[in-house]
Amino acid sequence: MEGMLLQATIYLTAALVAVPISARLGLGSVLGYLFAGIAIGPVMGLAGSEMADLQHFAEFGVVMMLFLIGLEMEPRALWDMRHRLLGLGGMQIVLTTLAVMGGAMALGLVWQTALAAGLVLALSSTAIVMQTLKEKGLTMTEGGRATFSVLLTQDIAVIPMLALVPLLAVAQSPRLSADGSVQRATGEAVADAHGPALSLVSGLPGWGVTLATLAAVAAIILVGHYLTRPLFRFVHGSHLHEMFTVVALLIVLSIAVLMIMVGVSPALGTFLAGVVLANSEFRHELESNIEPFKGLLLGLFFMTVGAGINLQVLFANFAPIFGMTLALMLGKGAILYVLAMLFGLKTRAKWLFTLALAQAGEFGFVLVSFSLQTGVLTESLGQTLLLVIAMTMLLTPLAFILQDRLSRRQSEAAGPGRDADVIDEQQSIIIAGIGRFGQVVNRMLQMSGYRATVLDHDLATVELMRKFGFKSFFGDPTRPELLHAAGLEKAQVLVAALDDKAANTRLVAYARHQRPDLKIVARARDRVHVYELYRAGADHIVREMFDSSLRAARYALEDLGLSDFEANELETAFYKHDRHTLRELAELWKPGIPIDRNPEYVARARELDKDLETALVRQEVEKADSET
């Protein structure tokens, strides 16, 4: 334990130095973690024998990351992704496996070994890719969603791959055990070596393993749906914030242990649990409690990958290993680009999809370990594959830098902005614009128990809202396809709160034309904008400064000596009169003609002002009569 704590301290110190420098240079945090691992491992030799234990511990960062990803999903959204999961993800795995297998057989490997190598290298790095997509705010884009679909399919495919690997053992190849004796590689030996200490499926027939797996998945769904809400309400009643953290970690670790006990990927199990809890009112609380642990463990995981690189073998065979690394990334990238074209991804999304997934992944390390133990791979070939996987992971942040440059060039050529997010939810309320006005509306709705689909074309604002746990989607709300994707046909209320006056008016006019029955609450910048929105069909129009100005005037009246009741009465009278005035003047307002050049408007406005004075005097007289 002391050695493991010392290793963790060394790793964290190296991260404290390398990661900020890497981020400042624009290389991203992942590359910083990998470089820090290389520095303390192969370069300085500070990685001790506890590194393997630390790596197993750090792998829970991937588990927690998939749990958080699941919290951002909904079962309906996952069902909507089924075509990409089976089509895009399935075709990527099959085509990449066959391509690598063909290349390996051309180099002289037997088909069993070549197939194992293809399975190992067909997988991509969920940890690196999802972390980088999140840092760059690309998770909800078209390319980001397609990338996530493939990664999720790969995580699911790990299960049958682990079952297939022992069957590829070539003539029961002998291997050396830890004590130096010769053993035969069998599927049973692998189960003993890698099975959990307490397995629920050991010794069961195939149908029994299947039933146990389905029972574990059903237990996760049922417990997540029916028991977690009462549990969190009970914890909430204790008013101990740290207990939320305890419960959140307990949920993740319990699910991971259960999945391991039935022989299923713990990352897949926790992702499923996250999806089940996506609609929970405690979703944001879970995210905020798990996020720090996920970031720390993912960082340690990337560092252990860097520390595990054997530089001696790499430098002794640099040309062939680097050549295989480039060949893998180029070949895999070509397959991904063709699939992106077949599935109709846009140009920016195609490059993001291609460059993000061109590497091998962390599950490749697991498959290599299994393959070595079953005799499918020789020790030298396994070491080579490990180096190729690590090299591709090291080059991945550079691929994202290339994607950034390509995206900027395409933006300059095709216009500003990036691709809009893919909207995966539809609520009864749509809020278009999440600036200072829309934020208050959204927060009050959430406090009242309602969820809204939030749209905004300001990327920085959207990313800031996501950091504070408010889900929002990037895109231009005035685009018809984005509005319909957000659920315009089914929505009950539209809150039009865009900063741009003209865009807000266009939005109201289009929504009213599409949905005559829709209730529209619109933000107005000034009195003229009120008239424009009135003509466009808004039901309720709120001038952004009007209510705050009324409150300021009320405070001034109170400071002048009026009582709270008297100031409130005057404020209410002015508010009612102003609403009546606006409706009358809106009928007289003529677009394109300045107000002061519209004689009918000016005359009626003066009459209405006199009516206000008369109404206030009448109110004072009635008040005096009532007191006497």
Task: Offer a few descriptive terms.
Na+/H+ antiporter like fold; mainly alpha; 2 domains; elongated; two-stranded antiparallel ribbon
Under the CATH scheme, which architecture of the largest domain would be assigned? Answer: Up-down Bundle
| Rg (CA only) | 31 Å
**Structural class by secondary-structure content:** mainly alpha
Largest sheet: 6 strands, parallel
- Give the CATH level 1 class of the largest domain: Mainly Alpha
Ends distance: 86 Å
Range of helix content: over 70%
- Average of the residue pLDDT scores: 78
Count of DSSP-assigned helices: 28
Approximate shape: elongated
Count of folded domains: 2
- CATH third-tier fold name of the largest domain: Na+/H+ antiporter like fold
Provide the β-strand percentage band: under 5%
Describe this structure in words.
With 628 residues, this protein is mainly α. It folds into two domains: 2-176 and 183-412, Up-down Bundle (Na+/H+ antiporter like fold); 429-627, Rossmann fold (3-Layer(aba) Sandwich). The protein has helices at 2-24, 29-43, 51-58, 60-71, 75-80, 82-106, 111-122, 126-135, 142-164, 187-194, 206-226, 228-238, 241-261, 266-276, 283-307, 311-316, 318-342, 347-356, 362-374, 379-414, 436-447, 459-467, 480-485, 501-514, 527-536, 546-559, 564-588, 599-627; strands at residues 174-176, 182-184, 429-432, 452-456, 473-474, 493-496, 519-524, 540-543. The strands form two sheets. Strands 5-4-3-6-7-8 form a six-stranded parallel β-sheet, with helices on both faces. A two-stranded antiparallel ribbon has the order 1-2. α25 links the parallel β7 and β8. Residues 171-196 and 612-618 have low confidence and may be disordered.
